[in-house]
UniProtKB/TrEMBL annotation:
EC number, as in UniProt: 5.1.3.2
Family, similarity comment: Belongs to the NAD(P)-dependent epimerase/dehydratase family.
Annotated SUPFAM superfamilies: NAD(P)-binding Rossmann-fold domains
Protein name: UDP-glucose 4-epimerase
Biochemical pathway: Carbohydrate metabolism; galactose metabolism
Signal peptide per UniProt: none
GO molecular function: UDP-glucose 4-epimerase activity
């Protein structure tokens, strides 16, 4: 059987495709290449260029391949952009996911793994690591658009022969330790990526968005998870559903947080390079502090993180940035 990866030419998707190939799976990718790159897709995978809401294309993909699972990454991912342009997030993340889920049900694809996000929680009531049962109060259209998809999946699983795993990602960073893929998106906004660009001199320093938050150093706290550990959680989810496991929602993070300033200091330390940091105002849609409780992923999915080390995450991100600079793919 084959696995269909949507958004397989993107950052996390391209790591997933490599992880599936490494595990001996047959892999099919659909990506419209709006932010991803064809060259980022492992050569073993079968590639279809197009949109996940293109029903005819999906029917063709299901007819041409024996797909028993979909891993759904395709979507828009930038919190402040979603605040500025909410309807495009409800279109790309919610409406198009609905079309994909409908096509999956029609084609009787039994398993589905969904890229959800910690943004569904908003800012939790306490500083404790957040559990899946915490209140769901997204603070951005991005978080809301993903939560709506989780709700569609829940209801679809109740009505049809269909199981899903929604993985709520915390802050994904780093790159394939073997250097085969990484975060290549142009105009990236994610903290470690932006800092890596500053190290390489691709940008003149960077901004810290807000130093007046109620945290020890005033900057926001996040749980940074290495992208390969995240890809591995999807493999475990797939394995579990294929073995008959039911639908489940699981956090993907390590359970410890770093502030923005801590991350930037670590980047400078690992790189051995200093770069200018400007203190700017708060960025719209940012939650103050959010850290995962990963117990469900560890117990139910049998997930074992291997790269729970901020310096390693940063090192792999820097190595990839360096690789991009050398191949002139900035
Ligand atoms: N930040 C800066 N300067 C930058 C970039 C980011 O100070 O140049 C700060 C942000 O304001 C925020 C923190 O770094 O406080 C992390 O920001 P990112 O943009 O790296 O990530 P987000 O936390 O906004 O969002 C990410 C994912 C979401 C996910 C969320 C969960 O994009 O999918 O983490 O916490 F939901």
């Amino acid at each position: 059987m084959a696995v269909l990866v949507t958004g397989g030419a993107g950052y996390i998707g391209s790591h997933m495709v490599w992880a599936l190939c490494d595990a001996g799976e047959e892999v099919v990718v659909i990506d419209r290449l709006s932010t991803g790159f064809r060259w980022a897709v492992a050569p073993e995978a079968r590639f279809y260029e197009g949109d996940i809401a293109d029903r005819e294309l999906l029917q063709r993909i299901f007819a041409e391949n024996r797909i028993d699972a979909i891993i759904h990454f395709a979507g828009s991912i930038i919190v402040p952009e979603s605040v500025a342009d909410p309807l495009s997030y409800y279109e790309n993340n919610t409406a198009k996911s609905r079309a994909l889920i409908a096509a999956a049900v029609e084609a009787k694809v039994p398993h589905f793994v969904f890229s959800s996000t910690a943004a569904v929680y908003g800012t939790p009531d306490t500083a404790d690591p957040v559990e899946e049962t915490a209140p769901l109060r997204p603070e951005s259209p991005y978080g809301a658009s993903k939560l709506m998809t989780e709700i569609m999946l829940r209801d679809t699983a109740l009505a049809h022969d269909f199981t899903y795993t929604a993985l709520r990602y915390f802050n994904v960073a780093g790159a394939d330790p073997r250097g085969r893929t990484g975060q290549s998106t142009k105009g990236a906004t994610h903290l470690i990526k932006v800092a890596a660009e500053a190290v390489l001199g691709k940008r003149q320093g960077m901004d810290v968005f807000g130093t007046d938050y109620p945290t020890p150093d005033g900057t926001c706290i996040r749980d940074y998870i290495h992208v390969s550990d995240l890809a591995n959680a999807h493999l475990k989810a797939l394995e579990r559903m294929r073995a008959g496991g039911g639908s489940i929602v699981a956090n993907c993070g390590y359970g410890r947080g770093f502030s923005v300033l801590e991350v930037l200091n670590r980047v400078k330390e690992v790189a051995g390079v200093d770069f200018p940091v400007r203190i700017s105002g708060r960025r719209p849609g940012d939650a103050v502090s959010i850290v995962a409780n990963p117990a469900v992923a560890m117990q139910e999915l049998n997930w074992q993180p291997k790269h729970d080390d901020l310096a390693f995450i940063v090192r792999t991100a820097l190595d990839w940035e360096d690789h991009l600079a050398r191949r002139n793919q900035i």
